[in-house]
């Protein structure tokens, strides 16, 4: 087989890239090690920046997003038993975020790819990326007992944190930066109305962090900070709902509508960046290159901005016969990635209880919270990072 761009991974990065390339007339094949159902079964992100929603519309998959997505104009910070609204829309001159589950975004992209009859290899085993530092890269995989090979012009490594692409780069050619946080997030999905349908709520209580989000007006998404060694089976539904309420202000706690959870999982929190994001004719995008703690709702949105840069680079290469976009891809992505890493680290540090933070550290956190909600400059800084910095931010 031969294609112009071989995309490894059928998560949001891979599918969005495939759809944008298809619309530009660039042939691509997506190679995924799991089944499509497995990919859809992973419950993850839910808050989309304007750049992401615009890109989904550009890719021609924005219909359900526009019909079912919920636009948020503000967020709320809860600490010391009091709720403080941050008017994100007003502080950023009109920018907003949209609540629309990653699962639904992935489903829309899968359906569009299937409708266009684009080649997608699911359940591909032992995927290898070969000769990506030559002009003739190849992808090899096994399926149905056969070994297959795809010749291509470029490889897009959209295969997530545990993928094969970054792992295939010689250690001396890549630099990895990592910070692991001393706690995890226990997340639940429940078919109950969200306690706060118009604002995402972030709570810092003496018992730990909690987050109130949603997927629709009838489906809620909640998280509580938990010890890294907790297991999902340690948490009954009742224990979760009781703990969530204890971490919110009393008025909001009294309004939480509980019900049976339909998904419950614990995710570790880490900050991670691999540099560079290009290796010859192989390009990393999304979680393959970087991970953020989900506090700032940046993971999925960073994947989308990588794909925006990468799809534009490929389009320039084939249409305008220039490699300028390809050559600047890694630097442009990393400028944006590190600012999102900073914001996600900052908001995680502001809103969580750290096991080793007592006394002075706790007082500093309380002072920072008080400063953020009472300083327009700090609230604006939070707001402009939350909605996503412009793609050309800081570019001269
Ligand atoms: P993904 O990991 O989504 O997709 C990579 C794909 O590549 C997968 O389908 C995988 O099966 C495939 N793959 C891997 N190795 C392969 C191989 N060798 N060959 C072929 N295919 C291979 N972000 C937020 O903004 N908010 C959140 O609340 C949030 N919660 C999260 C919770 C969890 C548990 C995790 C893990 C992440 C969370 N994220 C969150 C971040 C998440 O949404 C990612 O940013 C997003 O999935 C990135 O998409 P991709 O880059 O496509 O990577
Ligand atoms: C979510 O809805 O999953 C979500 C919302 C806001 C965050 C993280 C996750 O900061």
Give an overview of the whole structure.
This protein is of the alpha+beta class. The chain has one domain (5-178, 269-387): FAD/NAD(P)-binding domain (3-Layer(bba) Sandwich). 36% of the residues lie in helices and 30% in strands. It contains 12 helices and 19 strands. It has helices at 12-23, 36-41, 50-58, 63-68, 88-91, 102-115, 237-247, 250-253, 299-319, 324-351, 360-374, 376-386, and strands at 2-8, 28-31, 47-48, 70-72, 74-79, 82-86, 97-99, 120-121, 125-130, 138-143, 146-157, 175-190, 199-205, 208-216, 219-226, 261-275, 278-279, 282-284, 290-291. Strands 1, 2, 8, 9, 10, 11, 17 and 18 form an 8-stranded mixed β-sheet that branches. α1 runs parallel beside α6 (102-115) and α9 (299-319) runs antiparallel to α10. It starts with a strand and ends in a 10-residue tail after the last helix. The mean pLDDT is 97. It binds arabino-flavin-adenine dinucleotide (FAS) and P-hydroxybenzoic acid (PHB).
